[in-house]
Amino acid sequence: MKRYLGVSVVLLCLLFLLPLATVVTHVVRREAEAEPEGEEEAKIELLPPGETDGSYTIRVLLGDQVETMTMGEYLQGVVRAEMPASFEQQALCAQAVAARTYTLYKMATGGNHGDVADVCGNPTCCQAYLDKETAAGNWGDRAENYEAKVENAVSLTDGQTILYEGQPILAVFHSSSAGQTKNSGEVWTGDLPYLQSVSSPEGSGVPNYYSRAEFTPEEFKKLFLAAHPEANLSGSADGWIGERKVSEDGNVDSVTVGGVSVRGTQMRTIFSLRSTTFETEVQDGNIVFFVTGYGHGVGMSQYGAQQMAKDGSDWKEIITHYYTGVTVAVYTPESLS
Ligand SMILES: [Zn+2]
Predict the structure, then answer these.
(1) Which of 101, 130, 290, 295 could form a disulfide bond with 80, CB atoms 3.0-4.6 angstroms apart?
(2) Co-location of 276 and 302 in the same domain
(3) What is the pTM assigned to this prediction?
(4) Residues 85, 108: one domain?
């Protein structure tokens, strides 16, 4: 009975989370890495790969090829692609744990690829993936140390997985927050207990932390009416944008445009904004968005993780800060049975 209950709970979750999970992914694009200049770095020792991550394989769809690799090999590729390797070791470790958990979550809930693969290398679907050679080409003369940091991030956290009620969580992450992360329910349809708003210490030191997007009335009209033809965008642009509902963490929940109420997330999509933390103003007749942070704002902030690591937090402290009420333990897909 308990098992059936378990299965139906999983199925029920699947039903609610699948649409969410496909939208979710990570709007994490790598920012230009600020390189410390002129200092010769000591060689970083490469640790042996972890036994748990090496004990099973997963199927990864890369382009139109399905490659079978160990969880450890896959995670190295994700960490190479999803976080600047110049980041602190403990931030990279937190990234490895989030990526492992996200992958195990996908595997446990059926994922997006049916019987073909467990995950893919497309960041808008699953997680970005970069092989060793390509990454080394990008990293230039820092490649050896960066590769060691990435591989060590995986082996130092071998098997470690973020669990809520004993199950891997939907461990989403994003580039940077506006002082606080967002509740999942503000951004997606479902609110998950472990994806709640928490403080995030990254500040204006993040590249393009504050951004600006400007539209002429004609451009604004064209984009908005394509999504909402029923909106009334006549007269001066000063009157187009009405009431805004903003949550405590700065997220724009909804805004009224031309008499139509739209979610902040939709505004972000329509106008390609970097986040849903924004204000608008009419300047010289144009509509200007002032945007803070980058990404969907839910789960771990990568620049926040970097700041916590710089301030002395280890990966576990970073993980338990960003994901509410979770435990961290070694977990493998076999733990499911
Ligand atoms: Zn995918």
Answers:
(1) 130
(2) no
(3) 0.82
(4) yes
